[in-house]
Amino acid sequence: MSGTTLHSSQTIASKDPAATGVFEADTKQVSGVILQKGFKPGWIAGFAIGFIILQLLLVSIAWLIAKGTGIWGLNVPVAWGFAIVNFVWWIGIGHAGTLISAILLLFRQEWRTSIARFSEAMTLFAVACAAIFPALHVGRPWFAYWLLPYPNTMAVWPQFRSPLLWDVFAVSTYASVSLGFWYVGLIPDFATMRDRAKNRPAQILYGIFSLGWIGSARHWRRYTDVYLLLAGLATPLVLSVHTIVSFDFAVSQVPGWHATIFPPYFVAGAIFSGFAMVLTLVIPVRACYGMKNFFTDWHLDCMAKVMLASGLVVAYGYVLEHFAAWYSEHPAEVFMLLNRMFGPYWWSYWSLMLCNIAIPQLLWIPWCRGNVYMLFFISIVINIGMWLERYVIVITSLHRDYLPGSWGMYYPTFWDWSMYIGTMGLFTVLLFIFLRILPMIAIFEMRELAHHKAKHEESH
Amino acid sequence: MSTPHDHHESVTAPEGKGTHGLLAEFVDSDALIHAAQTLTDKGYRKVEAYSSIPIEGLDEALNYRWSWVPPVVFCGGVTGATLGFTMQYVISAILYPLNIGGRPTNSWPLFIPVTFECTIFCAAWSGIIGMILMNGLPRLHHPLFSVPQFDRCSTDGYFIEVEAKDPLFDLNATRKLLEELHAKEVIHVPASA
Hey, is the C-beta of B154 within 8 angstroms of any chain A C-beta? Predict the structure, then answer.
């Protein structure tokens, strides 16, 4: 740009998205969802359903605290029932959020931008649901803080050689770093909301959360530095979390658990289920909020492909589990495998194969990836399949191990189911609150993307 | 779009109020970088650019090259690793040694997962807190917030402020310079009461 050009012609010639109104349009569309007055009937209905289911969770927790874990179907030999199944399921779902926000950022996958905020929120809520289960599973949840290393009058300390304790550190680090990463991403958007809000309480609240963000170039520089570093830190973190969750199983001697394939196979399963959950949520949300220009069919297609790829890694994990059991020639391992396929829990095994291996193969067909109903259906199937996977791993391995004398069956009770379904209520409530008060799309990142694209076109 | 000369009257300092600086709005990011570069080239030091997005090259144009964020994150990580491992060593080998199948009390390979988590925790949070504090945040008020046009900075505005404490600052000369740099508008920023 030369200094001699006339000022007015510069104004007209500028292709900057700020000058052409793209920034304003994007910002208005996303912030408009939050800054409008009142509540839409659809939002109220969804929130109300979630709120009712949440009450089921609260009643279940209250009853559990009153009576103890005996109200669940747990007993020897299956002492890890729904609590662990649900814990692993929820935490796995959370992983897609970090994958989208951090790993895809490092790989410069531009399609992540519009879904990152939403899936990070999903991560946080899923981790909140997950954490409930082990905390209650300890039996006396009011002593759950004994898991932490702190000087105490009993002079006892945690056992750092146990993967269960690693889990405490992994999950709490994951929850806190995810929250921090999410909040950092929100700061510039809080500033936008502060400046666009019309009523005083909203201005004050968004203003406080924006920390007085002013958008200076030096601030942005430190901001982008820390954002990239956080992505770099969150990437190994998310891999470590599900690796450590898999150590809960793999470090033990139980047939069906003691396998070296577990860490990568658990991580792939987490990504698989997480992307399925993102699709399950994004498809209705984009229809209800008219966000199809942000969550485009192309985004759904990309997610479907990631799901297909991670699903194949999961399938490879299953194959290798079978191979290792057969190749080991260990009677207990071979029996475990046959028992899974043809024992009393055969139905869970074959439904798992159907849900996680057979049906997802439909994603090879471009039509299935382009049809939202089909994608929604497949994503639900994968959610169920990934829950069944943890059910198969936990229950079928424990219920018949080395000694036939100690075999037994596991039957979930009403309270097992009520607590599991109840956490879905908690998740729904948190999600609806999020949709109402926070921008579901990272607005400043959308502006940055538009700016980047405009610069790119200009240079050609 | 208005020409810069429409706005002479908005630049004169109102009676009885101090001056925090002069705020100029620009039409696009190229003009912003160009203006920032020219101002720093001319020797202005208390110049700050504001935008709704991070802009590549703007920090260099303002002579801001070195960010302390990466070293802070690194130090946080090293501290976390040291504290995490030391905690486990002290607890498992000194405070509460357990003999499990004759394994060494300092079974360091099993301490790696928690050491790793502590490293990430401290690195991430020192980065987050460090970024916020180095940016001088949280801050409840800033003189620019009293400029109504500045509200658009978080949506689509590109602004530069030359602060009055800059030795080269002169209400008229600086205003003229900003207008020559094709500022859309030059606004007087009053000092906070």
Answer: yes
